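Revision sheet: structure tokens.
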Amino acid sequence: SRNNRDLNGVFEQMSSAVLDVDHFSSRNQLAIQDYLLGRLLNGRYETCDEFNQVGRDIGLSIHGSCFCVLIMRLSMPIADMQPYRQAIEQAEFPSCRSYVRMGNSNDSLITVLEWEETPDDTQLESAAEHIRTLSCFNSFSAIVGLGNPVDNIKDIPVSYNEAFIAVEFGIPCRVNRYS
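Predicted:
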């Protein structure tokens, strides 16, 4: 709708202005990254180019052809999720790129995984196991939910909803068959 286009234009202008400030803080950059990834999870982008045009100023770009969403929910809310976010951001996921976003509450982190080709079940389970290993290494307990892979950026919300349902119902890691 026209209002959405107007809001997107305003946001793009604001993010460009903020990025031009000499003393741009990493906290502001993370807030913008969270905002863009939130829009991605809600289906606001139809193509990778559309997302990349907005994300380029903060170094976010997506070029893969397959995506899935992984949600890690901690066993209890904590005041500062930043160390957990950094642990996931710095982790090397096998054969894919990752983008981390804070959840809407202080108890979850949402990761969009991106592959060049459709991953097999082993690669999907490896990504979830990687998160479980990180949680053990960093002494926190977490439930991990993993959505099905999707082959189009506009379908990322489907994978997000599947991961959310898996976490919400306490399923430690559920990978639905990709068809």
